[in-house]
Amino acid sequence: MLFHSFFYIFIFFPIVFLCHHLWRRLDCFLFSGWWLVLASIFFYGWGDLTSIPVLLLSIAFNYTFGHLLQKQHDTTRQKNTPARLLFYCGLGANLALLIFFKYADFFITNINWIIEGNIKPLNILLPLAISFFTFHQISYLVDSYFGKIKNGKLKEYLMYILFFPKLISGPIVRYNEFVHQLKNLKVSIDYRNASIGLMLFFIGLLKITTAARVFGIWADKGFSDPATLTVIDGWTTSLSYTFQIYFDFSGYIDMAMGSARFFNIQLPVNFNSPYRAVNIQDFWQRWHITLSTFLRDYIYIPLGGSRLGEFRTYTNIILTFLICGIWHGSGWMFILWGGLHGVGLVFQRLWQKTKIKMPFLLSVLLTFNFVNMTWIFFRSDSVSQALNILKSMAGLNLTSGFTVLHGIPASEIIIAILSITIVFFAPNSNQISERYRPSIRLVVYMTAIIFTGLLFLNSSTPREFIYFDF
After folding, report:
1. How large is the C-alpha radius of gyration of the chain?
2. 7: Cβ contacts below 8 Å, ≥ 6 apart
3. How many domains would you assign to the chain?
4. Any alpha helices (H) in 49-190, and if so which ranges?
5. pTM of whole model > 0.90?
6. If residue 15 lies in a helix (H) or strand (E), which one and from where to where?
7. Could you tell me which of 207, 271, 209, 218 has the C-alpha nearest to residue 240?
8. pLDDT digits (tens, 9 = 90+) for 452-470
9. What is the C-alpha to C-alpha distance for residues 394 and 401, in angstroms, rounded to an integer?
10. Annotated catalytic, 328?
């Protein structure tokens, strides 16, 4: 189910929210939790019932293994051999599930290419959100193994995995952080939380229905025929995708955080003005923050982090970002994108050793352009497609004309200019919610945002979020 649909906004969410708080007011705390679990399964299965068995079997498996790991830790107070075996079996099963559904055909295609074979692809339907719910469950197993989770309850675990605002595309949340909030939920509606949630949700809706939609149209045009792009077309195409993926994903996260706030759940910040970053490390501390934290805590640090000398540090960085690329999709372009960011981080660390400081604006400009150019590989279907766009940006395509923006309405150009200005100069959603103060001016602004978001939603067909594919 899409957040930016009339069914979600006017039917599903109001019914779920009002019934949840009705059960709590009637002291039916047990049922209010199960109500959210059932509503989340309905949300997940909307339009794709075939994914539900995979999700529920994965949950049953990981809850059982997590319970056994917690019991082992409580019994021995140390990570003994049985606990290690349980942990590695659980981890291996999760990775096997992800590899089977997400990467089986990728491996078959590459094996066929290497051996010139003709193995038929499996054409397996990818379960919705498998990357996100698998990462959540791996996090649960790791924290259970290290004794950070004790006596996890089934209903709390179901809520942790299934809670519909974060189920499809995150943000990625730690079990203890989430359950702590569940145990301290207020009985009555928190009107401050609800008003902040309403504000965040419709800011996100406005991002999706205006900026992400406009930039998405332009990006699709350019990527459809990159060999014919002029230098202006090339830059328009690359920048369009760069801003499309930002507004699309950050808009989704705003709506997820806004929806959760109605239930008095505060999801972790996932974006913090990433295109204002002064270096690549700073970018990853601002972009998809919960994924960056997961990769750091569960991959980079276990590999040795920066504790084993410079060469191992650089190797660990590149390996972590190759895994980051693979996680995003079953294609060499994603792996290449991850590798480029890993190499970029290594060069940044080497540059820092020179003690030379760049001017702030130059740092932001260089970082943004690096990110912009690497997004081309992320979006492209092949290296040749990516190189064609890079060639056009350098003015090396021998073509004439101006195709990407030809015939574009002036309203879309205005939306694009305003959106880019907001990215670099306006407060972001997190800052706005932190500074929240009820006022007449805020009511006027929010009325305009809600009206505009719904108006644009009504005037266009909702597009799936980019991260639905991951």
Report:
1. 23
2. 1
3. 2
4. 52-76, 81-98, 104-115, 130-145, 154-162, 164-167, 175-183
5. yes
6. helix 13-25
7. 218
8. 999 998 877 777 777 776 6
9. 16
10. yes
